[in-house]
Specification:
Elements (H helix, E strand, L loop, with lengths): L14 H10 L7 H6 L3 H16 L5 H14 L3 H13 L4 H6 L3 H4 L8 H15 L5 H36 L7
Helix pairs in contact: 1-3, 4-5, 4-8, 4-9, 8-9
Length: 179
């Protein structure tokens, strides 16, 4: 059970915002995360815009973004985030073996069998950003060489954003059921 009841999505004052959120979701369905965010329409609008950009407008390869999101979910014990993004990672050409390896993100960072250079760099960046916040310069430099500055900024923004998501989900006790 969540720590705060989900907002009623049938409230006429929320109709336009609910429609905007549905339009961003490929399924057209609201998630419990959305229903919680609707307690603050201003916050929900900003959240929707930011995550629409992360999910649809970045140059960083989709499977790299989803790999980082899944690693954040595992590192922060955010089961809801994992349940939402593990299928997205697989759809972006990730493998089940890679997902399984994220049970130990630290080990995955050094697994040259399952992960290529780009994937390992993304995992190392995710691990440091999530656990220490400050990232070791050599990890940033390696990622900069592999991704370039635009994609590195986008990847860092994705990792930071999904750390926010996971913390929001966990603290509020949001469950994975939806409409």
């Amino acid at each position: 059970m969540p720590n705060i009841a989900y907002r009623n999505t049938e409230d006429p004052e929320l109709a336009e915002l609910v429609a905007t959120i549905r339009a961003r979701r490929s399924s057209g369905k609201l998630l419990n995360l959305d229903r919680m965010l609707l307690h603050s329409p201003a916050f929900a609008r900003g959240w929707n815009a930011m995550f629409a950009a992360i999910r649809n407008q970045l140059q960083v390869p989709r499977h790299i973004n989803e790999l980082a999101i899944c690693a954040v979910a595992r590192l922060n014990n955010a089961d809801y985030e994992w349940l939402q993004h593990a299928p997205e990672f697989l759809a972006a050409k990730g493998t089940q073996a890679q997902l399984d390896a994220l049970d130990d993100v630290t080990s995955a960072c050094y697994d040259t069998t399952l992960f290529d250079d780009h994937e390992r760099a993304a995992l190392r960046l995710t691990l440091d950003m999530t656990r220490q916040v400050a990232v070791r310069p050599e990890i940033i430099e390696r990622a900069r060489v592999l991704f370039g500055e635009q994609q590195l900024v986008e990847l860092m923004g994705t990792i930071a954003g999904y750390n926010m998501v996971s913390r929001f989900l966990v603290v509020l006790g949001i469950d994975a059921a939806g409409e």
